[in-house]
Amino acid sequence: MKLRHFVLAISITAIWGVNFSVIKLGLTTVDPLILAGIRFTLCALPAIFFIPKPDVQWRYIIGYGLIFGIGLWAVVNIGIKSGLSAGIASLVLQFSAFFTILLGAWMFNETISRYQLAGMGLACCGLLSIILIADGTVTMAGLLLVLLGAIAWSAANVINKKAKTTQVFAFLVWSSAFSPIPLFGLDYAINGSVGYSALVHQLDDRVILSILFQVYPNTLFGYWVWNSLLKRYPVSTVAPLSLLVPVFGLLGSVMIFDETLSANKIIAVLLIVSGLGVGLYGQRIFSVLFKRSGRCAS
Length: 298
Known about the structure:
The protein is built from 14 helices and no strands. The two termini are 30 Å apart. Helix 1 packs across helix 13 (245-257). By secondary structure, it is an all-alpha fold.
């Protein structure tokens, strides 16, 4: 990978990690469902008027939009609002990789390797370490909600796989159009007009920055760059860099909210990131090392 592309890829993982803290900034004055609704409104508009509909069945576009917008990000927003720190949320959400593996085994009869099982075991030990954190940055409600969001993300990944689209950016833009109305409607059904009144009277620079960051650098620019790199380079070169997302997520929470890095959090990061590495890339790494050792022996 060329140096400029490597730096660009690292920058995107940093943006995706810090985005969790940016979401938390917006949640200080905006309801979680409204914040997600505004985010996906701006992801769809005005881009949808300039980007042709991807060659994908409507059921995949609509299904992805509802699950990605409501099941994933609205639920994660609520989880952060429920007391889970932004850094821990970015870490726990990575369990979507393992849920995707399990869904793939169930729906596509894909085999779960011993490396994936070992990775899941390591990550679960990291989750246990998170549960034991007692500094006020972890709530059981928030933890369960973000895990639910991780399950939704895995379901969105399955929909994306079944859609078999190569027009990833167009797919993201068009699917985003189906998230806002249900999100705004759910918030009104639950909270009435309170959230909208608060939005009008408490809209400030912090909220605007949060919304714009989530839409443009994080979602539209981030996914466009990442998928462009995936087209240019092998998946095995680009994808492992995503392991840095929870690292940047925790660092962002430390810098923006002065979150304390306790021993349990450091252990959780090491275990979950190691689990992801072993589960997703262990077999490939072992094969490379085995080939090299074979050459040396010969």
